[in-house]
Amino acid sequence: MQAQSYYQGRDFVVRDTTIEPGGSIGWHWHRGTVIAVVKEGTLRHYRSDCTVDAVYRPGESFVEFSGADNVHDGRNFGTIPLVLEVIYVIPAGTPLADAVAPPHNCR
To answer: In DSSP terms, which residues pair with 14 in a beta bridge?
Structure first.
């Protein structure tokens, strides 16, 4: 599912993201604010120093802030698919996320 609207120079995008067991979103950052809710599974959220800053379970929500200094990754170490409902509030016409290489010493 994905829905998108535009308001005052910003795109508002709502979509479901699924991460299979053993998978990850990949290292990235956002140009706007991201709000997410875990619908199924468990998310391990990593910050740029490769440490886990939180573990989110079904019904829990979190916010990811904008800027290249907020690099992060999300991983599914569970046995079922992880499903997130995500709202992106980003400058109009920009990508949902900017991919980056993994930080040094991260696996």
So the answer is: 3, 87
Structure tokens at 103: 């930080």
Q: Give which of 77, 53, 83 is closest to 65, Cα–Cα.
A: 53
Query: What is the per-residue burial (b if ≥16 Cβ within 10 Å, else e) of 85-106?
Result: ebbbbbeeeeebbeeeeeeeee
| pTM assigned to the model | 0.90
- For residue range 13-66, what is the model confidence (pLDDT) as tens digits? 999 999 999 999 999 999 999 999 999 999 999 999 999 999 999 999 999 999
Give the β-pairing of 82-91 and 98-99.
unpaired
Supply 102's token pair.
Answer: 């993994």
